[in-house]
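Please produce the structure of this protein holding CU-O-CU linkage.
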Amino acid sequence: VPISPPDLSKCHLADGGDGVGKVQCCPPYGSDTPIVDYQFPSSKPLRVRRPAHLLEKEEIEKYKEAITKMRELTKTDPNDPRGWMQQANVHCQFCNGAFDQVGFDSTLLQVHYSWLFLPWHRWYLHFYERILGSLIGDDTFALPFWNWDTPDGMRMPSIFADTASSLYDEYRNLSHLPPAVMDFKYAYGDAVPSTDEEVKEVVNKNLLQIRTSYKEGLTLPELFMGDPVRAGETIDDSTNSSGSLETIHNGVHQWTGPDSEPYMDMGNFYSAARDPIFFCHHSNVDRMWHIYRAMRGHKTEFEDTDWLDASFLFMDENKQLVKVKLRDSLNPLKLKYTYEEVELPWAETGI
Ligand code: C2O
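Below is the modeled complex.
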C-alpha cells in the first residue's frame, strides 16, 4: 500500500534533534480545510530554472524581491501558509516527524531516506516556486539552481553571501562564504582547502562522486533514488538506504550550515528550509534527477503502484490545499518548468 497524506488533525511535536529537542512546526490548517486534486498548469508559461551563479541582474532582483515578500508575509500574518516560516515548517513536518502515518499511530511519516525523497521535494519546490512567482505577479518566475556539479558552481553562489539581501541567512558556516570550495564529504571542523592543489583535489573528488553515483545508479534506481517504503513501514536511516543523490545532497547541507550544534539552519532538517539557499540547493538535486531520467530514456524508475500512487498535500499560491500523486511529478514539462542546459563535466567521457 502506498504512503498517503497525514491526518491533519493529528499533528504533534516534531523532534529537532540534539540541542533543539521537541519543536512545534505543525501547519496552521487542519482537517477541516478543503482539499482539491492537483491539476496540471497546462495553460501557464514554462519556467526556466537557471544556474544561480550565472543569473542576470534582473533575475537576481526578482528573486530577492520574491523572497522579501515571502519573509514579509510571515511578519504580517505568521499563519499565512505561503509565508517564509510556514514554508520552512513544511520541511520540519515531514523530516522531523510531526505526523504519524494514517492507520499506524506510532510510525512516523518521513519523506527522506527512501524512494519518496526526490518526488516529494520536487512537489515542495513546485509549490514554493509558484508562491514566489505569485507574490511578485510573475508566472514565469523560476527558482535558480545551485550548480554544484560543475567546478564554477562548487561554492556558495555570491547572491547568497550579500548580507544586505533577503537571500542572506546568518546561520551558516561563515568560513564557507565564497570563494571557499565545497566538499561533498565535508566533516565538521575540516579546514577549508586553500592551495590550488587542494582545491583541485576536492573538486575532482566531488565530480567523481557524482559520476559514480550515476554510473552505479543508472541501472538500479534504488541506488540512486533510495529504497522502497510502503504504508506502515518505519522510515529512517537505520532501516533504509538513502539514494546516492540524497547522500551527496546531505553533504551540501552539512557544508552550508554552521559547524556546531544544533547546526541550524541548513545542517539541521528541522530548520534547513528557513535558509533560502535550501531551495536553490534542492533545485539542483531535482535537476540531477531530471538528468538521470533523461539518461535512462525516461523509463519509469519503479513500476510499482506503492511508489506511483504515493500522495502528498501542499498549499498552493492561492492558499488552496492540493493533493498530488507521485506519478504526476515525473515530467517537469507538465509542471511547466525546465532546466537550462549546461555542461556536465562529470559525465564528459560518457558514463
Ligand atoms: Cu528534505 Cu535537503 O532535505
